[in-house]
Amino acid sequence: MRGQRSATLDDVARAAGVSRATASRVITGQGPASARSRDRVTQAVTKLGYVPDAAARALASRSGTRLAIAVIGATAAILDDPYVGRVLTTAAHIAAEREVGVSLHWVPLGASLATLASSHNLGGLVVVNPTQPALHTVPKAMRGRTAAIGVGTKDVPSFDVDNGSGTDGVVRHLVNTGRQRIAMVTGPSWLPCVDRARDAYHQIMRDSGRETRVVSGDFTATRGAAAAMEIMTRWPDTDAVFALSDLTALGVLDGLHAQGIRIPADVAVAGFDDIAFACLSRPALTTSTHPVEEIAAAAARAVLDRGNTDRTTFFPSTLVVRESA
Amino acid sequence: MRGQRSATLDDVARAAGVSRATASRVITGQGPASARSRDRVTQAVTKLGYVPDAAARALASRSGTRLAIAVIGATAAILDDPYVGRVLTTAAHIAAEREVGVSLHWVPLGASLATLASSHNLGGLVVVNPTQPALHTVPKAMRGRTAAIGVGTKDVPSFDVDNGSGTDGVVRHLVNTGRQRIAMVTGPSWLPCVDRARDAYHQIMRDSGRETRVVSGDFTATRGAAAAMEIMTRWPDTDAVFALSDLTALGVLDGLHAQGIRIPADVAVAGFDDIAFACLSRPALTTSTHPVEEIAAAAARAVLDRGNTDRTTFFPSTLVVRESA
DNA sequence: CTCACACATGGAAGCGCTTCCATGGCAATA
DNA sequence: TATTGCCATGGAAGCGCTTCCATGTGTGAG
């Protein structure tokens, strides 16, 4: 293509015979410009193959054009779970409509978001699985353009699936289908949504006079398989397992299979999320939906359109009965 | 935290009692600085909670600090496949070691990479599933910091799995285990790697005096299920199906199940990629490995460390025999 | 004791862009 | 014809940072 150095706004302005200011106005579409200038600039742009420099633009306009998605406390395994992928795809979609890009950032638990969020080239920030401390590290200037997927702080709009009622639906189904000794595999304990789910489980167990059996998980399949062993060893008479993630439930299925346990005849298994694979497993997984796309879209829109929702919005989760429970 | 406006390098310099130049040198670690200046600046930085602005830095230094991953021709479904996720995670890892971020970009088939790659705040570019035209749109200035995952052009280092020998291994296994009428489900036809795999399949079929049965796929599970129907309708005596993607193979498994076909008794099924779910399905999937992490790491390193590899590197794929074939 | 040299330092010039502001031209009004 | 007002325009001032260059300051060699 063109020479070594790529064309700048100056080159365009010169080629069009207008000032840089005018060229800028035409290109950004902000501010007045005569039809004549508009034409000449447009022509110069295509002729020179001019593409505005995002960094310079962000710096000058003090508002970037990129939506950052920060995933808190993620291990490498998290992308085995379609979850982040779905958030990402959806956000990218919404962002693309507004001609902004997306970037993905893994933020270790306890790390600061300051570096990430301080950059001028950021148009917005969506924090996935936020913790209070992490959210507090986002600079004031960025607060208005931040949303959380999960349970956030007061000054940041938050979006999450209704883990409580979702869990309620699943566990109630287990109870209604005659299961007596129902175990639960949770997720990472630092996630507030895990608490809500565990609370819901405890509630039902208590109300129906059942004993609780909880082992902690991390949303991975590997952990699910291990949890299956652990559960059947500690409580051999368990007749149902509810995992707070489909991936984990799939692992549980596997672990149970390995022990020669029949599903759902001996033990019922239920998950949470309704991932694409849930209906591909044998037996197909009974689970509860997780409207990730809706949630991610809401978060992305809240950030990009500055929706002034500063409350937490919960999205309903509905039971999907298949073969495993 | 601090006031409305966040601290700039000027603030730090002032607080430390040095010039902006010196402060910059200390912070970037480039250029000389006395121990005294270093201390004072470091203190000022922590005191003010100073975080450098990425946009300004990129603009001034003419070299960004972000690794962009552009996925060509991706549909929303692509993230159901762990593939992109694995690329992303690995790249993010390598990038993080060098304190650079990653960003992900969906580039429609036929779209230009110019806008993406022209930005000064880009440290490198990794193009996934590149097409020749797409690669040609990356500005000269960026060429040196670009790598391809897939088959690229001469001036860009490329990394890919050896689809040819991988396919060879799988199909040969099918042949060796006595399968006679082996069908293949391919991937998107615009991907060169699909050609290589199809060629390998044709080769073996021809060499062993077998007839070829090819239906085209798109790497999704949905398409796999449909392909299973299509294959069994067109060629009811088929006794093996090889899909160029595990996701598709899983779909095939599902489609075959739906028709009451036993696997592997009636029909053997083999995939490609060895995704995490491959061993979770019933029956567990026979497949061939795809060292995505190695490939992505090589690509990321080639870009970040300016490795002058301007050739295509193929990574070996090895057969994994499980239950389905 | 002098000269040369290295090193730490600050001033200043940008990087490529947006945007404020003052200017000038033109049509509409009186 | 003189006055008002509006709109298109260019000049210039940054955005926050890096980096070149010239200036001091202290050290070792002669």
Map the helices and strands.
The structure is a homodimer of 325-residue chains.
Chain A: H1 9-16, H2 20-28, H3 35-48, H4 54-61, E1 66-72, H5 82-97, E2 101-107, H6 114-118, E3 124-128, H7 132-136, H8 140-143, E4 146-149, E5 158-161, H9 163-176, E6 182-185, H10 192-207, E7 213-215, H11 221-234, E8 240-243, H12 246-258, E9 268-270, E10 287-288, H13 292-304, E11 312-315, E12 319-320
Parallel strand pairs in A: 1-2, 1-3, 3-4, 4-5, 5-11, 6-7, 6-8, 8-9
Antiparallel strand pairs in A: 10-12
Chain A binds a DNA duplex (30 and 30 nucleotides) through helix 2 and helix 4.
- Structural class of chain A, by secondary structure, is alpha/beta
Low-confidence segments of chain A, ≥5 residues, pLDDT <50?
none
Kindly state the number of beta strands of chain A. Answer: 12
Q: What is the H-and-E element order of chain A?
A: HHHHEHEHEHHEEHEHEHEHEEHEE
Strand content of chain A: 15-25%
> What general outline of chain A do the C-alpha atoms trace?
elongated
Multimerization state: homodimer
What order do the strands of the largest sheet of chain A run in, or round the barrel if closed? 2-1-3-4-5-11
Give the helix level of chain A as a range of percent.
40-55%
Instruction: Report Rg of chain A.
Output: 25 Å
| Largest interface, C-beta within 8 A | A-B, 59 and 59 residues
| Overall mean pLDDT of chain A | 91
**Largest sheet descriptor of chain A:** 6 strands, parallel
The CA-CA distance between the termini of chain A, in Å, is 61 Å
Count of helical stretches of chain A: 13
